Amino acid sequence: MTGFEGFGLWSIVGTIATVVGGLVTPTNIETYISLNVDPWDQNETIDFMEPMGSFGIQTDLGDHVRLFAEHQSSPRQGNDHPGLNHAGVKFLAPVSSETTLYSGISVNSSIDTDKVDIDAPLISVGIEDGDEDLKIFVEYLADMSKIERGRLSIGLKLYFR
Fold it and tell me: Is 107 helix (H, G, I), strand (E, B) or coil?
């Protein structure tokens, strides 16, 4: 399996909806598409084929709080529908005008697949750097009850406003 059999109709619809959503919503509501990889591919809780992609929407409430909802799945894998879908809050610590540290908590959707073994809320810790349209990020995402079995991802996010 080396192709992109998971990049089908739902991926195309998700991409179009993400771009259009970002363009028609107020500028304080951002949508994004990301592509990321776990360089060690040792995650057990979020078991998708690498690399992974995501569609997301977020809004910042001031300088230190972000609300978000995100879908993650693998473009290389056709049997991961409906992917990982979670929504929550991130607490932001701006380091500079382009760099932000964050930590967050989110809840996974009850609609799940056997590729996601999540029993508790998710926690995330990360850093993002870049301008308002393109950011590089590093994030650790894990089930609170299995923190050591999370996924470390490194990737790029392309934003639409």
Answer: strand
